[in-house]
Amino acid sequence: MVTVQAKLIFESFEDKQKVLDLMRRWSSCMRFAYKRLLEGFDRNSLKKDLQGIFNLNSRYVNDAIMKAGSILESCKQSGEDPRKVVFGGRELFEKLKKRHINGNPYKKLKIEWQEKRKGNLYSRGDRSKKGNLNTRIVANERGTFLRINVGDRKYVFARLSAGYKKGKSREEILQEIAVLEMPYSVELKLKNGNMYAYFSVEELFPATEITKENGAIGIDTNAYPNHIAWVEVDRSGQFISYGKIPMPELESGSFEKREYYRWQYAHEIVEIAKEKRKAIVIERLDIKHRGTRGDFSGRKSRRIRHFFSYRSLLEKIKILAKREGIEVIEVSPAYTSVIGMLKYAPQFMISKDVASAYVIARRGLGLKEKIPANYMELLSRLDASSLEELKEYVSKAVKNVHSRRKQIKEIEYVMRMIQSPGSESGRLSAPLDGTSAGSCSAGYNLWRVLRVAVVTPLSPDRVLRDMSVLKSLLISGQVGRPK
Question: How far is CA 333 from CA 179, 286, 290, in A?
Fold first, then answer.
């Protein structure tokens, strides 16, 4: 979807008041519909009642019910209590409840909260009506206007004052939308006494011309330090070049500032792919962990929610790539860091972040990763006694309680696999080919076992960023029990 913003300028004070009244009634209708949906009312029966209560036509009422339903569904998906939704914003509402705020600051906060609560209107587009029936863009020799249906077959016209979007006048974009008779949705919002319109229209992308037949660019996002690592591979998955893009601006600042820089970094990645004529491979980031209590609390859940920022960045890369006709491939991020760290970082003398991007690129081409022969020999020698020694070593060496528990938990996981009925007595049963699909009959992943056997003895407290120490192990085959 493409969104264009424009300010509404009314020819008279009476026209503006009519639209403000319409927005107030629509906002009340949406809040009323939300409460009734929460109580289990049927949408069809609710529609007839709302038209008479709020004096709105059926299209406005339909849009209000749809908006209320989307808010309710969003609350359920995020694990929030839908009964505690505050229209107008909880943050502003909590500030208004504080008694130490008074005078002009209090009045200003109250006006802002009232505008967010009552100053809304949403109207969906309709392809059969060639645009939008309730809020239609009208272009003539006098300029570009928004025709707003205020009820009883009466209309108010407001001039659209728009700036520029990527060197092109927003007004020209709105005129193109009107001429092409494309369905577009309009959302009106009240801010600081001014009224703004947001036009959303579905974007038509060109045919995909740059595909993985020429190779791929693998993208890996990293929080510490905050940067993007990218790797270029040819069509057979061979390593060609790599680079890093620092992203310090995403660590702090307002949402608008970070959103602006996310677009900038997305443009930079797409330009690299366009120049090299390669497809883009990114991770498929799914936010699934809801915390131990199901309310998204807990250390792991907070860390995963932090990656919402990176998912937003990857979404922008997908949009920009589609506009340039570049294929975007999404792959599972499972074990990409571990495989890159253990297999490719030592071979190419690169950081584990770049190595992870390399694994992502290869995975996008459909290639599978095999565990090197020397690592397989190490796994064949792994037994319960060596893991018991490693567990004792970690208990003494790691000072951080959380890190110590995490490492011991992983070691105990591998010990259970060794002691499982399907394995030999005190030995790890593994497939001979050493594939990462690599899962044995017991259902565990060999790369996870290898991380415990190799990375934990090297640095039990935290993962090393430079894994060049493993190069001699990969080449010479000097393997043994971890000490």
Answer: 44, 10, 19
Tally helices (H) and strands (E) across the chain: 18, 14
Which is it for strands 279-283 and 216-222: parallel, antiparallel or unpaired? Answer: parallel
Domains and CATH numbers, the chain: 2-201 (no CATH), 217-364 (3.30.420.140), 373-476 (no CATH)
Separation of alpha carbons 39 and 471, rounded Å: 64
SS (H, E, C) 407-447: HHHHHHHHHHHHCCCCCCCCECCCCCCCECCCECCCCCEHH
Nearest Cα to Cα of residue 438 among 455, 417, 460, 407: 417
SS3 category, 99 = coil
* Residues whose CB falls within 8 Å of the CB of residue 395, separated by 6 or more in sequence, listed in order: 404, 408
What tokens were used for 83?
């009964």
The SS3 of residue 182 is: coil
Q: Give, for 243, the enclosing helix (H) or strand (E).
A: strand 239-246
Distance CA 477, CA 381 (A): 13
What would the two tokens of residue 117 be? 């609560």
Count of C-beta atoms within a 10 Å radius of residue 106: 15
Q: What is the pLDDT of residue 481?
A: 39
What are the structure tokens assigned to 39, written together? 């109580």
What is the signed CA dihedral for 473, 477, 482, 483, rounded to 10 degrees? -80
The tokens for 74 are: 């969003």
| Segment (H or E) for 111 | helix 103-118
Strands 2-10 and 154-161: antiparallel
Tens-place pLDDT, residues 134-182: 999 888 778 889 999 998 889 999 998 876 555 456 777 787 777 777 7
Q: Is 436:368 a contact under the CB 8 Å cutoff?
A: yes
Which class for 397: exposed (0-12), middle (13-18), buried (19 or more C-beta within 10 A)?
A: middle
For the stretch 43-58, pLDDT in tens is: 888 888 898 899 999 9
Structure tokens at 164: 């520029």
Report CA Rg, the chain.
29
The four Cα atoms 177, 178, 184, 187 give a dihedral, to 10 degrees, of 110
